[in-house]
Specification:
CATH topology of one domain: Serine Threonine Protein Phosphatase 5, Tetratricopeptide repeat
CATH architecture of one domain: Alpha Horseshoe
Low-confidence stretches: 3-20
Number of strands: 0
Number of helices: 22
CATH superfamily of one domain: Tetratricopeptide repeat domain
Largest sheet: none
CATH class of one domain: Mainly Alpha
Helix content: over 70%
Strand content: under 5%
Mean pLDDT: 88
Radius of gyration: 44 Å
């Protein structure tokens, strides 16, 4: 994990020092000529010939310490250019061992040795030489601190790594430069390795502000999940969605479930419906059911009903018909509620059949199907959990039925008496007509 991350953000090997030869008077003419020739061959890509020239020069007993430092610097340059880092390190170490090597040459050698040790993943030596270099320079570069931070990261010395990253950022900002993207990525990785998720999130927030990328938003959402910041996580995923960053069925459904979890069913329904229309979310029973439940929870009756009907028809049990009955009932469509509840009852498989019977009974009551309602409530009474409610509704329905029957009876009695009175009036009139 650490090594792969370093490959992504490791700074490139800095350009090795150019072959600036010393004044001719500092070394003898023959040595100067050999070094010049080696430089020309190296620049032409003739590496083997350049090294052969230096090998001849190396055998001379006339080289002073300064000349040897220049020669070994040439060796190091050629080896490094050929990605022979171990050989280059050995040559640079010989530069450092020369008493008369210039301070600039030694300083450059230390810095480059540190870089090469990083390249060959010898992080302990990288740290040692980079620390030595930093202790000797007046103006350390931000990149030196970043390399040191990366080496500390690889050796799991996270606090020291963070200290160097922050130093690099401070140096960069002091010069009015924007913070390097890879440095912030390293910083976030360090905080994450320390399990400091709050600081990790803050660093990703800074990253997104400076370098807005969907990949960073995804990672930030994951960190918010670790922190239990579900609302923030949802907000980030929604931003990703709005920017077209969610293209897979699982991603869209996960976002919809997040909205359902935060009691925002309308948004969940919109996401699922849009995904189905685009052909990304499969139009299967499970997804249709989720869609229907979302619309139902959002009180979108007109959208919930067709979705539930589709899902219920595909289902082997009556659960979705019971759910459909509830949607119809809440919308005041009591006739449709009765139909759906009856289908749920017929299919079975309900976790609590008594609840469906209660709803069916109430819907029947509202459509004046009192006999049917009484049957539903009496069946619901068989379940202990609904016994009281069912008994009350049974009593209420019975009383209503008696009241209606009494009204009907009174109406019939009234009609009968009215008819008898009319007949009496007619008889009286006939008697008057006859007597007259």
């Amino acid at each position: 994990m650490r090594r792969s991350f370093a490959k992504i953000i490791a700074i490139a090997l800095l350009a090795l020092p150019g072959l600036v030869l010393a004044q001719k008077g500092a070394i003898d003419a023959k040595t100067f000529e050999a070094l010049t020739k080696a430089q020309e061959l190296a620049e032409q890509g003739e590496t083997a010939q350049a090294l052969a020239t230096l090998d001849k020069l190396k055998g001379s007993d006339k080289l002073n310490s300064y000349a040897k430092s220049q020669m070994w610097n040439f060796y190091a340059f050629i080896y490094a250019s050929n990605n022979q880092y171990k050989e280059a390190i050995g040559a640079y170490r010989k530069v450092l061992s020369q008493r008369d090597a210039t301070e600039g040459l030694k300083s450059n050698a230390k810095y480059t040795i540190a870089q090469m040790y990083f390249q060959i993943e010898d992080y302990s030596n990288c740290i040692r030489f980079m620390q030595s270099w930093l202790s000797e320079v007046d103006k350390p570069t931000p990149t030196a601190h970043i390399m040191l931070a990366q080496a500390y990261y690889q050796t799991e010395q996270y606090d020291r790594a963070l200290s160097n990253v922050n130093t690099a950022i401070d140096l960069e900002q002091a010069e009015g430069k924007p913070i390097n993207e890879s440095w912030l990525r390293l910083k976030s990785a360090l905080y994450f390795s320390k399990k400091d998720y709050k600081a990790t999130a803050e660093t990703y927030e800074q990253l997104i502000a400076l370098y807005p990328k969907l990949s960073y938003m995804r990672q930030l959402a994951g960190i918010y999940s670790e922190l239990g910041e579900n609302k923030k996580r949802l907000a980030v995923y929604d931003a990703i969605y709005e920017h077209g960053g969610l293209s897979k069925e699982t991603e869209l459904l996960n976002l919809a479930y997040m909205y359902l979890g935060q009691d925002v069913p309308y948004k969940a329904g919109t996401i699922i419906e849009t995904g189905m229309q685009a052909g990304v979310i499969e139009d299967n029973q499970k997804n249709i059911t989720t869609l229907a439940n979302a619309w139902a929870a959002a009180n979108e009756h007109k959208k919930a009903v067709p979705a539930l009907e589709r899902a219920a028809q595909q289902s082997d049990d009556g659960v979705l018909f019971a759910r459909l009955a509830g949607v119809h009932f809440n919308a005041g469509d009591f006739d449709e509620a009765v139909k759906a509840a009856k289908l749920a009852d017929q299919k079975g498989g309900l976790k609590n059949p008594a609840n469906n019977l209660m709803l069916m009974g109430m819907a029947q009551f509202n459509t004046k199907q009192f006999e049917g309602a009484l049957q539903s409530f009496r069946r619901a009474k068989q379940d202990k959990s609904s016994f009281r409610a069912a008994a009350k509704w049974e009593s209420y329905t019975t009383a209503e039925l008696k009241r209606i029957r009494a009204l009907e009876k009174a109406k019939l009695e009234l009609e009968k008496r009215t008819e008898e009175a009319l007949e009496a009036d007619e008889n009286n009139q006939d008697a008057i007509d006859i007597s007259g």
